[in-house]
Amino acid sequence: MATAAASRRHVVAVPYPGRGHINPMLVVCRQLAAADAGLAVTVVVTEEWHALLAAAGVPATLPDRVRLATIPNVIPSEHVRGADGVGFVEAVHSKMGEPVERLLDQLERRPDAVVVDTYLTWGVAAGAARGIPVCSLWTMPATFFLALYHMDRWPPVDGPEGEEGQSCKSLDQYFPFPVLSSVKCSDIKVFRSLALELPMKRVAQVFSNLSKAQCVLFASVFELESGAINGITQVLPCPIYTVGPSIPHMSLEGNSDKIRRDNYSDWLDAQPKNSVLYVSFGSYISMSSSQLEEVAMGLHESAVRFFWVARDKATTTTLQQISGDKGLVVPWCDQLKVLSHPSIGGFLSHCGWNSTMEAVFAGVPVLASPVGWDQLVNARLVADEWKIGINLREQRREDGIVGRATISAAVTTLMDLADGDSLDMRRRAEELQEASRSAIQEGGSSWRSLRSFVRYLAEGKLNAVETSQ
């Protein structure tokens, strides 16, 4: 039973304004509320994001002690952020902090701690200036964190060997962390481009600010990234907690084998076990129309059944026409429930971290088609570190496109249940599935880590370092 003191505990959570950040933050907030009956959580989002979450029915699914609070829409709309990614990053950096700070000052209950997305450059300082302990939440792989943390020591990608020679070199040749062996120097070339010069400057500020954080939470699983987690403990001065996978696994309870109340249920139910390739490239960073066409034609040539989520109606109609009658193209689905359906035997993905974790949780092998940012590292983890999939990026043509013949061959290999490579990937995927599910069960690594953090908070061990702005 919660004590009177415990019932007064209050945490404010501030996610980065993007679906790939808000979703795991909400999962962590649900977990915190479940782990501590005396804890109330306030999640701060923009008015636009509040409306988007309300339209999806999210507020109704939150525990009573987890509520949403809003700030004005001071940043570009989610619907147009893809047209100017750098401008969006700058707006979040320069315009979002002030209204969040005003909200912190106006709250009826002073927070005992603030959980803020690591990418919010002003987040740690905002809490520290008010004497509020700040916990940073990293919503991407720990391996990517470790690589970015040492970006001041990255080698030049345009060295004497050129890009081709550099592509074979691993980052672990430059840092004392063997876990970075799967990350190639060519993977970081995108971060050296002029287009990302300003965002990378903000990332550098992020890691500089971490010295003021009281702890860092990771939306990962220790068993999946033990080398990276152990490496991070060597370089960060504060405690770290792995609390993942931070995906909506709670909605699967009692309903993992059947999808109900959705118009695609009957189609999936009618397909043989492990016969359908699930296809989705995320909600934000999209691939070119020419690459999408190659994917569609590759699926058509493979003759493999597929279930494809395309976000807009025009794209959905076009892809259905190109792909033919072997599959179904829809504008939306409950991704984790679909991945957990018995008919799904593979996942063609952009390899965002949430999608990657959902594939692992569902025990589904992956065809990785990363576009940018952490997706490049996630694809390396999938194919080279965990060995549960194929990295299509490695098979691009000179124009940067993966051709339909290559896609068709990779799809055929992955979905052939008699193929030796496919069987090996499936066996490994089952092992990682067991590890990720065990982590959140009572006594598991993430279960223990989350409760250690809650105890850390309850015992008042989060001591903010006050600073002036």
TrEMBL record:
Membership in a protein family: Belongs to the UDP-glycosyltransferase family.
Alphabetized UniProt keyword annotations: Glycosyltransferase, Transferase
Cited InterPro entries: UDP_glucos_trans, UDP_glycos_trans_CS
Protein name as it appears in the record: Glycosyltransferase
Listed EC numbers: 2.4.1.-
Organism domain of life: Eukaryota
One family name in Pfam for this protein: UDPGT
Organism whose genome encodes this protein: Urochloa decumbens
